[in-house]
Each structure stands twice: as C-alpha cells, then as structure tokens.
Design a protein that fits this description.
alpha+beta; 5-stranded mixed β-sheet; 3-stranded antiparallel β-sheet; 18 helices; about 10% strand; binds protoporphyrin IX containing FE
C-alpha cells in the first residue's frame, strides 16, 4: 500500500538516508547503534525502509499507546505479514480478530501451575546438558543452549523424546527461518521473489518446519495424552494436548490447520529467543567475576546441593536479577505494527497504512532510564530507581494484548537453567575479547561462544580422583 506522509516537519527524519535505499543500509550494517542514536532526535523518528517511510517510537508512553491498543487501531505490520503466507496465522502473526479468539484458548497452557510442571523438564534438560561435560572440556555454549532450549520446547509442547529425528530437523531449519524472516521485512518485495539461494533456503526451511509440525500434530491427535501415561493431576501435561482440548466461547475446537499454525509459532517463538537469553547470561556471568561469585553463593545457600524446583525461584533474587539484566541488554531489537486508521502518536499524525517500529533494545538503552546503558549490572535492579522507571521503559516481552505468552515460561527457564548449571560448573571464556552482538531477524544473537567448563565440586570423572571400584 502506498501511504502519503502527512507528518510534516514535526517529525524528524534520521540522518544518513540514501536515495532509493533509505536507511536500509544502516539498519543492516549497524542496526543497534543506529536505533540507539534515534532517541536523541525525538519521541517519533522517521526512517525509510527503501522508499517506504516507517516511524520509530522512542518514548515509552508512545510505545505503550500502540501496544495497549486492543487491535482497533494497529495490527502487526510488515515484519509478521511477510511470514504469514508461509507460517500461517498462529498467535504471533494472527490478525486482531483471530487473535481475540485464539489467545484465551492457548493461555491456560501457560498458566502458573503448568509452568511449575515445565520447570522440572527445564531442570532435567540442564542436567542432561551437564552430564555430557568433562572437566576442562571446551564446549560450544551457544550450540549447547540451542540443544537445551529445543529439548525443552519439544518435550513441553509434544513430549518428543530427546534425540528424535524431529529434534534434528528443527535444529537445522529454525536458524535459517529466524534470520530469513527478519531480513524479509527490510527488503523490497520484488527481491524476495527472485530465485536466489537465500530465498530458496528460507522457503525450504519453512516447508520442512511445516512438515514436522504436521507430523507431530497428527500423531498426537491419535494419542493425545503423554505417551508414557504420566499425565499430571490436572490432566495431560504437554501443551499440544491442552490445545487439542481447548474450546472457544462457542465450544468449538481449533481446526487442524490452526493447531498446526499455533504449534509452529510456539516452536519458532520459544526457542531462539530463549537460546539467546541463556547464552548471553552464561557469557556475561562468566566475564563478570563478582556477579559470578554471588551467583555461586546464592545457589549454594538456597539449594544446598539439591535440584532447583519452581518454588525455589523466588528465593534466587540475584539469579533473577541476572536474567532481568540480560533481557534488558539483549531483548528483541526490531518489532513492528501498522496503523489501521489515521492515528496521532506524540507529535506525529500518521495516515492509515503507516508502518511503525518499536524496539525494546532502543528503550532499554535510553540513558535517561538506564544510566551507563551498555554496562552489565544486575544490581541496577536492586535500587529504588528500578521501581521508579516509567511504565513501558522495560519491555523485553512486549506489552498489552500481544505481550509474549511465554514470558513466565522463558523467565522460569532462564533462572532454572542458570541456577542448575551454576550449582555445579564454572564456565571460562576462551578469549577476553567482548562478544559482539549479532542482530538476526528480530533477535540479538550472541556470537559462537566456546568456553571451558570446570567442575565446582569434585567430579566423579576428574583425572586423578578416587573412583568407586567397579562392581
Ligand atoms: C527470552 C525469551 C523470550 C523473549 C525475549 C520473547 C519476546 C517476545 C516479544 C517481545 C513478543 C511480542 C512481539 C510483538 O509485540 O510483536 C513475543 C510474543 C510472543 N512470544 Fe515470546 N519471547 C520469549 C520466549 C517465548 C517463549 C518461551 C514462547 C513459547 C513457548 C514464546 C511465545 C510467544 C508468542 C506465541 C508470542 C505472540 C503472542 C501474541 O501475540 O499473543 N515466547 N515474545
């Protein structure tokens, strides 16, 4: 849709616009610096995605106005729209009318009681990860966290056993999908239709993910409960079983197509996000010795050597602050909405069809709300200042009706895994060079991170240690 720009001089345009390309080069080459620089220009700043104007919101109250809309004035915009024909209309991409039906049907799967059950799966996955480690070994931590988060999502979603073919498939295809989806929002549509290798890789990844999801849904539909019969006291434990049972206000179940879209969406939305958060948490903790020492002291005191449970999580405040700070430093960097009708946002009067960008990264790096914003400082969440933050200044999971449905799941997972690993291992980075963030799709991914793993307590397979004689 072509949109006539009616905002006039009240809205500044970001410097460095190139003819035809707009700000695409800056958004591609140095997106984080570019976005953070816009805060100083105004509450709403115009950028150009090629020839198309888009409006970046830099003030928390303006972002809130957009995110708390009930779907009357804004829908999800170009970022998700371009994925919709490929991945369907799960929660992430659903248009407002469908979203209003789907969200209440899916929400119970993320109820507190369910998160408590999933926490046991998260801890088990962390224990399996550690079981493969040898003292002093070098581990590709980013890959280990991909395996771990995939294992958690596959088990909590459809009780898939670890190591199954489904795992391998998701593992290979998901990164291609996530990076492709983000790039596609920024590039002109004609480029996406060319038979380029990158376009082929993307559509191939989508086709493989869809086939995998179809298979999971159809085999689950015939055996809706956990294959081992170990359902919880409140019924079946995995998310897919709950979705199969869900009914809308008219008593209708989801169609097979809708179910597939929702499962695929949860796989896409729940894996790479959590992998990035965990990898950053392990890297930042390992490179900040005081933070690490206090983490070790906290897990030793609170857990006293036993496995972490859901009820322990509120008693791990330092671990929780590490997670909060990681999500402040490296939240999603680019998300979008589109005005469905003319709207006024701060100084801008925007016509229907206008593309709007909001960025948790930009808001979280505003020095007015987070002094020395690039510094990793979990203790900033201790002070009274944290309580006086303006509403909407810290939104790693978005806000309003489209807020992340997996926020409690993700927070519980990050805290559980971090505490479980820290209780037993110290991680040492291989290089003192700071890790360079890589904005990929809407996420800020860590680079490949190789670290040495050292046991904190005597390890049964440590060289030179007494071992129990084989019986
Ligand atoms: C650290 C981890 C995570 C982060 C930072 C994160 C972030 C976000 C953000 C910012 C949004 C809002 C997007 C928008 O406004 O357009 C969102 C939506 C969503 N997320 Fe997450 N997420 C995380 C983990 C998860 C997990 C574990 C799941 C599921 C298991 C999940 C499922 C979803 C879904 C389904 C939506 C769409 C919600 C709706 O529109 O109703 N996310 N997430």
């Amino acid at each position: 849709m072509s949109v006539r720009d009616q905002t006039g001089p009240a809205v500044p345009t970001a410097p460095g616009r190139l003819p035809g390309l707009g700000h695409t080069v800056q958004l591609y080459r140095r997106p984080l610096e570019f976005l953070a620089s816009l805060t100083a220009l105004g509450d709403v700043v115009r950028v150009y995605l090629g020839p198309l104007p888009a409006y970046v919101l830099t003030a928390p109250d303006v972002v809130r106005q957009v995110l708390h809309d009930g779907g009357q004035n804004f829908d999800k915009g170009r970022l998700f729209e371009r994925s919709r024909p490929l991945v369907g209309q799960g929660l992430l991409t659903a248009q407002p009318q469908l979203h209003r039906i789907q969200r209440p049907m899916i929400q119970p799967a993320f109820h507190r009681a369910r998160i408590a059950q999933y926490t046991a799966t998260m801890r088990a996955a962390a224990e399996e990860t550690m079981a493969a480690w040898q003292p002093g070994q070098t581990v590709a931590i980013d890959r280990a966290m991909t395996d771990l988060t995939l294992s958690v999502i596959a088990r909590t979603l459809f009780s898939a056993p670890p190591g199954s073919a489904a795992f391998t498939e998701v593992h290979q295809t998901l990164p291609v999908f996530v990076s492709g989806a983000g790039l596609r929002a920024l590039l002109p549509a004609w480029l996406l239709r060319l038979p380029l290798p990158a376009n082929r890789r993307f559509t191939d990844a989508v086709a493989r993910l869809l086939a995998l999801t179809d298979q999971a849904v159809s085999s689950h539909s015939s055996t809706p409960n956990r294959p081992d019969g170990a359902d919880g006291p409140d019924g079946p434990e995995d998310v897919l079983s709950l979705l199969l049972q869900a009914r809308d206000e008219h008593g209708r179940a989801m169609s097979a197509q809708q179910l597939r879209d929702e499962v695929l969406t949860l796989i896409i939305a729940g894996t790479e996000t959590s992998q990035a958060a965990l990898t950053w948490a392990l890297h930042l903790t390992a490179t900040h010795p005081t933070v690490e020492q206090r983490l070790h002291e906290e897990v030793d005191t609170v857990l006293e050597g036993r496995p972490v449970t859901f009820t322990d999580l509120p008693h791990l405040p330092h671990t929780t602050r590490i997670v909060n700070e990681v999500l402040r430093l490296y939240p999603p960097w680019l998300l979008m909405r589109r005005a469905l009708r003319p709207v006024t946002l701060g100084p801008a009067r925007l016509p229907a069809g206008t593309e709007i960008i909001y960025s948790p990264y930009l808001l979280h790096h505003d020095p007015r709300h987070f002094p020395d914003p690039d510094r990793f400082d979990p203790d900033r969440w201790l002070t009274d200042r944290a309580r006086t933050l303006p509403r909407g200044a810290y939104i790693p999971f978005g806000a309003g009706p489209r807020k992340c449905i997996g926020d409690s799941f993700a927070a519980a997972q990050a805290t559980t895994v971090l505490a479980t690993l820290a209780a037993q291992w110290t991680l040492r980075p291989h290089t003192s060079t700071p890790a360079i963030p890589r904005p990929t799709g809407p996420l800020i991914r860590p680079p490949e991170l190789r670290m040495s793993v050292l046991p904190r307590h005597p390890h049964p397979t440590s060289p030179g240690e007494d071992r129990a004689p084989a019986s």
